[in-house]
């Protein structure tokens, strides 16, 4: 197998415990050098609500959410949004290098331990037509996904807004699943590629509540 980024041959020596587990091997498609460019988030030192790296105290953003009466999503991201990750996401979402969706498939597959109905935040129709694929569905397709949310058109992508404009973004999600079906699951995990202010994920959670979901809602993203 060749590394998805540098195209060098990748040699694998799976740990013995993985071989003896008789489960599908979750192997990274990146070589050691390329994988080392991306920093995993240390969950021992993050905001308990949104997963932002800090000294373990509740961050200012989450204090604001609490004052607004918005419930915590107990969000966690897998990787830090640094220069290496920015470049990869630009190549994936901006240029449309679709095979890059597999770079972190092994890490994303580990989210199965949450034991939840995984609900991705899908693209609005115009963005899907422009790209030809949905970046969130591509990243998380190693999980069993439930397409319970639809996104309507917005004036501008979140990535092109500053923090103040993001927070003022109106609701654009609608829950399309029946109340009875959703409530067969005690927990829902919302999935997105990038967490910045949390506005998008909180809108998605609000749409789930408006649709009648009464269970626990948490969220995860590839990047925080």
Please give a structural write-up.
The radius of gyration is 18 Å and the shape is globular. The protein has ten helices and six strands. With 224 residues, it is an alpha/beta fold. The strands form two sheets. It has a four-stranded parallel sheet with strand order 1-6-5-2. 30% of the residues lie in helices and 13% in strands. It has one domain (30-223).
Topology readout:
Layout: H1 16-20, H2 32-35, H3 60-67, E1 76-79, H4 83-95, H5 105-109, E2 117-120, H6 125-131, H7 135-139, E3 149-151, H8 163-167, E4 173-175, H9 179-182, E5 187-194, H10 199-210, E6 216-223
Parallel strand pairs: 1-6, 2-5, 5-6
Antiparallel strand pairs: 3-4
Summed up, what is this model?
The mean pLDDT is 90.
Number of domains: 1
Residues in helices, as a percent range? 25-40%
SSE ordering: HHHEHHEHHEHEHEHE
Mean pLDDT reading: 90
The proportion of residues in beta strands is: 5-15%
Sheet having the most strands: 4 strands, parallel
Entry keywords:
alpha/beta; four-stranded parallel β-sheet; two-stranded antiparallel ribbon
